Amino acid sequence: MPILINATGSAAIGTATATLNFMINVDGSAADNCLFVHAAGRAATIASTTGVTNMKYGSQTMTVGVKAMAAGSAGNDCFSEIWKLVNPSGGNNTCTVTMNVGENKAFGICLKGVDQTTPIENTATVTGANVTVTGLITATKENAWILNGLSYVGNYGSGTAGEVIDTGTVSGAANWVIEYDTGVNASGGFGLARNGPVKQPQLQTGTWSGTAGVKNALAILSVKPAIHPIGGSRKFIGGTSTNKIDCGAPTALNQIYAQGGGGMTIVLWMYPISASAERQMVVKANTFASDGEWQFYTGATNQIKFYRICSGTDLNISSGNNAFTSGVWHPVAVSWDGSLLGAGVRLYVDNLEIASYLTRVDGTVSLGSDVAFNLIIGNANNTTGFHGRLSDVQIFNRVLNISEIINCSYTPGSVKNGLVGFWPLTGQNSPEPDQSGNKNNGTVTGTIPDVGAPTAKFPRKSRRNYDLTNRSNIVLTESSNVTGSRIFNGTSDVVSCLNIAAINAFTTYSATAWIKLRTFNGTGTICAKRDGSGNGWQFYVDATNNRLGLFVGS
């Protein structure tokens, strides 16, 4: 996803100890917002600790990303700072910047498509008394942006006014916004360069030209784009009933456990931000008070749970405490054979059945119908909705075995038998589409798209669909990786699946792969099964001649 401008705003020139206020109207439905505010100021003398003392967007506190101080020369000092706020609240909110030196100015820009974990990749500063200001920064990610905040002051107190700074350039492609202020005994300027996207990762050079006697403070940072080659997820805010995806109560989603071969299975990916209370992932319920309602959810102490209201005692299954870790993606699943027995329910975390069950209570009397209740992802029409991200929700009208559950985790949608609903939750559509073929599309309320997604779906684990239980065979001898792919150095990096008997039995092969070549000449192996004597096969790329090749030796 490319980085794009979501919103901008600025504050007028302020005075010493001024609090500058300006509005920025952030589109909260956009994916991966990050607010950046450039604050600049100048005074006769400033210390290295002065400058911005506090910055907020609405009630959210911002943090400094990079700071440049041109201090120490009385009568000619300035500072430049760029602050950041990941995932600012949507709506038209006030940005409040508190500074404690001379004249000052603030600019704000909200960008969407920004990495939410590490929005700032690199920073650089330049300070001094130079006519020409040149700053260097490396942007290593394609589609990165460069933000440059400049403050300058010239001939302060000399009675000469009117120094201006020429339009700056950043590798020849700057979008420069600058304002300057003149007075009887002062001249200065403040600006923000918005340069992006960087089409090729490279060292970026920013150059600004001014008049003689100018002192400057330049703060530079590179904004890292959100990288998500395999889809997305949806972010749910817990503690509210307004974040959910309502899939209704069509025939395909009613009495799922009684439809096919008996029972049901739910497989999904979750990224819990907080599990301090019960948080629903998938439910068939209204207010969760009637016979027939059920829920698959997390508990207050990081348990995985399944609960089904019955005519007598309710079917109640729970893992032990700390079955998962908050702030991490997990594939989770529940299978239920459709009976009243607690032993008929199995819970899975990270593609393994949980080691022990804290609670396994049998249901009694009978199982009431769930036809009257909608299937909802992320909530149960109450204030205990899921808090975090969900992705690739798949529901089946039969009990899946462990190999099938693993396949659903690493290749979502690959298991078709009994699939009644498949919602990728990539955040690209509303209503949320059901890709099972049953068209059980979900009405989206509140939950927003998010480019964060399970990083293990491509291909961190074995993806041999016929046998995914033997994952210990995978040997990773390289260390550099990015979301959804692996980086190879062209010499020693390799992923080895060892000599697996099931692969040896193949008589025909098909091989597919996504590749992105860096600077490279010669032949590079994509995948191979061969020995040092040339026996076997090799699927490779010939980068010198821009072609693919297949070698087969006896």
Task: Please tell me about this protein's structure.
With 554 residues, the chain is mainly beta. It has 3 domains: 4-223, no CATH class; 233-450, Jelly Rolls; 474-553, no CATH class. It has 2 helices and 40 strands. The strands form 9 sheets. Strands 18, 20, 25, 26, 27, 30, 31 and 33 form an 8-stranded antiparallel beta sheet that branches. The relative contact order is 0.11. Residues 156-188, 191-197 and 456-483 have low confidence and may be disordered.
Concise account of the structure shown:
This protein is an all-beta fold. 2% of the residues lie in helices and 45% in strands.
Compute the separation of the termini in Å. Answer: 45 Å
Shape: flat
Given helix and strand content, the structural type is mainly beta
Helix content: under 10%
Mean pLDDT: 76
Our Rg estimate from Cα atoms comes to 29 Å
Number of helices: 2
Question: Which strand-content bin applies to the residues?
Answer: over 45%
> Could you name the ranges where pLDDT drops below 50 across 5 or more consecutive residues?
156-188, 191-197, 456-483
What's the domain count?
A: 3
How many strand units?
40
Largest sheet, described in full?
A: 8 strands, antiparallel
